[in-house]
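User: Study the fold:
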Amino acid sequence: MALEIERRFLVCGDGWRGLSARHELLHQGYLVPGGSGGITVRVRLAPEEAWLTLKAPAGGDPRVRHEFEWPLPSDEAEALLALCPQALVKTRHHLSLAGGDWVVDVFAGANAPLVLAEVELGQADAALELPPWCGREITGRGELSNAALAVRPLASWSDAERQDLFGAEIERLS
């Protein structure tokens, strides 16, 4: 059974940009956005590939989820995206950085200017040295999952909710 072991962080500053080995624009739509038992069914379209992904909880650790992924032809992904009631767009930067498979997602549209870092690990208790541009850890914060941001984007959050999440970083997001 495929497992995804991931930790997520708010990004503070642009120090990560020099580590970006490549980037791609991603369109993501949610056929099932995580409401029913935490199961999410996502369609993702990148310029040269597309996938259908199912994610589900794997025990009580928010860092670990079941993840099943199937490649799709681009035309089928586009047709499925048209059926998705919730969607988002982001640019994913793949980083050349030790300690795991690091990416930084720069969100567009109603989720701009949100920037999040994710690192996929080989095991949940793996030691991790955080780069200086990693801010508050948000692993397990459901309202900041991609599926939740597609349903309720950052632009719809109240000032108090944004202040609670970002604190002193709030001015960066205004």
About this structure: The chain has a mean pLDDT of 93. The radius of gyration is 16 Å. Helices lie at 74-83, 146-151, 159-166. The CA atoms of residues 20 and 95 lie 4 Å apart.
